[in-house]
Amino acid sequence: MRFCIEILLFGLVVPEFGCGPSCGSGTVDHNGSCVASYDEIVCAAGTTLANGSCVASYDKVVCAAGTTLANGSCVASYDEIVCAPGTTLANGNCTPDFAAVCGAGTLESSGRCLPLYVLSCGPGTLQVENRCEPDSSANPNITCGTGAVLRDGVCVGLSTQAIAMPFASGASVLVTQSANGYDSHHGYEQYAVDFGVPLGTDIAAARGGRVLASRSDSTVGCATDTCVGDANYIVIDHGDGTFGQYWHLQQNGVKVALGDSVCRGQLIGKSGNTGFSTGPHLHFAIVDVWQQTLPLFFDEAKDNGGALYAGSSFTSANVTPASCGEAHAYSDCATDTFLTRGVLMDAGVPCAVATPGSTYIITGTSLSSLPFVQLARYRTSSSDWEFDCASVGAGGHYSVTVSWPTPAYASYGMMMLSAAEPEASAAGCKPPEGWWLSPKVYLR
Ligand SMILES: [Zn+2]
Predict the structure, then answer these.
(1) CA 23 to chain centre
(2) The model's pTM
(3) CA gap 174, 195 in Å, rounded
(4) Cα-to-centroid distance, 434 and ligand 1 (Å)
């Protein structure tokens, strides 16, 4: 006789409800019955029979979205987490791509490292937030308008180059073609100035810098564009992405060597009449990395708003400053050089001189939704373009490794960076538009 607990159910005594039997050897208790065979035990969903017991059946566990089964439990399934653009999965969490790795001179913005714009405000200006504004305390009687700065008591445009005339101090020189001159000072030569000077006139550097390029072996000059490639010249890199150009020098009229650091006012050459020239003169301009001439403000013409106009003579006051002697660096590209092509670069990309055979890793951020960044380089040896395509990764980051092999780029190569779309060709990608001018990099 076996006893068990009787349970009151709805006021009635229900004998032996819920009471299991005491099973003997070779049998098991299952839901209150002694059964002889394991086979007859029916386990609940999600469990399986093992050694006479129903245990969790891992295989039958169904985990919720975003989780996965591991050791019988549902845990976060990292592979299934989709992180937002600009973030990356790390240890199960979406973290901003660059939150912890933005380097010096950069700013984290929405998961991207963007370059900080480093301002260098000139004399008579003050940095206000991220702009150069006229310093009214320097001359409270003058208020320069937007986009202008006070220099030596005069308001000049922010992009204007404030310089001295490119001749020895005291020399009086006739201007034969000014900026916007009809003959040839238009298009990207808009702001060039021609000085009618006798052969062999001393030429002085209008700004200090480093000698980037020169030629002095030509004896050829004529008044048609058939001679356009025959000029002797000097190009001086000012180190800030601007370059002084001194054209039509006489044979052997270059008095500096490539790579020399020169001071403002230093004599650098002798004028001539080589190349496309209607008579002895110096063609002078300052260009940016795109070879676009920049407006000039000559110290000697302060009373004229800095302008030298044709038909008049002006006297050079170009004096070498006491600080002369500093070493000048070649220009790197500004980080926003290719901003209008949808691409920002990190600092350190040469925009004037690269070492032959050297390799550069160009990194930065694409601002475009296009999936590639294209680096294009013009090979002077074969007169064609070479293309490299870099995929745009998380946060817009791209990296393209570029070498400057010789002799393909024996003298110089043009360089262009653009946001680009896929292209079913050997090139692999192409920008949505072409270009007119591009920065020039000498191999040296
Ligand atoms: Zn000219």
Answers:
(1) 82
(2) 0.69
(3) 6
(4) 28
Instruction: Sort strands 412-422 and 440-443 into parallel, antiparallel or unpaired.
Output: antiparallel
> Which of 34-38, 214-218, 260-264, 301-305 has the least mean pLDDT?
34-38
Residues with CB under 5 A from ligand 1 (ion): 192, 194, 283
User: If you measure from the C-alpha of residue 20 to the centroid of ligand 1, how many angstroms do you get, rounded to a whole number?
Assistant: 112
76 phi and psi angles, rounded to 5 deg: -55, 130
Cβ pair 305, 214 in contact under 8 A:
no
- Residue 66: beta bridge partners? none
- Measured distance CA(189)–CA(177) in Å, rounded: 12
Domains of the chain: residue spans and CATH: 19-79 (no CATH), 81-115 (no CATH), 125-157 (no CATH), 162-315 (2.70.70.10), 339-443 (2.60.40.10)
What residue type is assigned to position 160 of the chain?
A: T
Per-residue pLDDT of 43-73, as tens digits, reads: 777 677 666 667 676 655 667 776 776 666 6
Rounded to an integer, what distance in angstroms lies between the CA atom of residue 148 and that of residue 134? 7
Beta strands (DSSP E) in 320-434 are 343-345, 353-354, 359-366, 372-379, 384-391, 397-403, 412-422, 429-430
How far apart are the CA of 273 and the centre of ligand 1, in A? 12
Compute the distance between CA of residue 335 and CA of residue 194 in angstroms, rounded to an integer: 33
